[in-house]
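Example 3.2
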Amino acid sequence: MKEIGLIDFTNNEEIFLTEIIQVSKYKIIRIPNKKEDFKLSKRLDVIVLNGNDSSDFLTICEWLAFLKSYTSAYFIVTLGNEDKNERLVYLQLGAMQVINLNTQSSEIPILLKNYHEKLSSQKNSHKSLELNSANRTLVVDGNKEVELTRLEYKIMNCLSNNIGTTVSYKELISYVWGQDSSASKIQLSNLIFSLRGKLDPKDRGLVKTIRSKGYMLADRPQDNL
């Protein structure tokens, strides 16, 4: 069963959830609506931000900006009532769709179906990554093996377990050097630089820097490292 994330700001989302589950046959993964409690335990292709009306405008805007630093998911904003000007802002901040639940709820199943069909059709353009723990090598799209150091391998292993999701500096340092390590962001940056240098030039954008946050392993090369 496919899964979508839901961040609800209404405290009364049961009708919406029933619509999604019964018609679209999706499993809802509830995400806390407080940033201090935020954590993505798995990669989600779609995240829905569900609000009431203009009273949730600033909150949803803040969350859209916040989420873009952590995931490359497809964002849908659903509202009980929408304002045209606010709709434009949501789209500018990265929402792919803004749905008025009072008049457009029937579009949600179609929207999700179309999105996942498009996602499936794009699979051939995604990069295939293979990590071999026995000899600490990386193979991208079946090309030649790239030999990695122990630390480089640990970084790739951590990032590949969270494709499309930002892994924070702190989490990476803890994973690579250990929880009690005094390793710095500079050491981590140097390690990432060394790792990218071993990749084919066209693949170096796979390891993306998320400024002030950490790093993300993209499913296709990004222009900005």
